[in-house]
Amino acid sequence: MEIVLALAIGVLGGAGVWLLLRPRTFQVLMGLSLLSYAVNLFIFAMGSLSIRAEPIVVAGLPATLEHYTDPMPQALVLTAIVIGFATTALFLVVLLASRGLSGSDHVDGEDALR
Amino acid sequence: MRHWTESLMPHLIVAPILLPMMTAALMLLMGERRRGAKALLNVLSSALGLGAAVVLLLWVDAQPGPLAFGVYLPSNWPVPYGIVLVADRLSALMLVLAAGTGLASVLFAMARWHRAGVHFHPLWQIQLMGLNGAFLTGDLFNLFVFFEVMLVASYGLLLHGSGRARVGAGLHYIAINLLASSLFLIGAAMLYGVTGTLNMADMAQRLAQIPAADRGLLQAGAAILGLAFLTKAAMWPLNFWLVPAYTAASAPVAALFAIMTKVGLYAVLRLWTLFFPADPGAAAPFGGDALVWGGLATLGFGALGALASQHLGRLAGFSLIVSAGTLLAAIGLRQPAVTSGALFYLLSSTLAVSALFLLIELIERSREVEDEAIRPDSAAEDAAFNPDEPAPAGVNLDDSEQALVGRAIPAAMAFLGLAFIACTLLVTGLPPLSGFVAKFALLSALLNPAGLGVAAASPGPAGWSLLVLLIASGLASTIALSRTGIRYFWAAQERPAPRLRVIECLPIVGLLAACATLAVLAQPVLRYTAATAAALHQPAHYIDAVLSARPLPSPSSASP
Question: Per the CB < 8 Å rule, is A32 touching B179?
Answer without folding.
Answer: yes
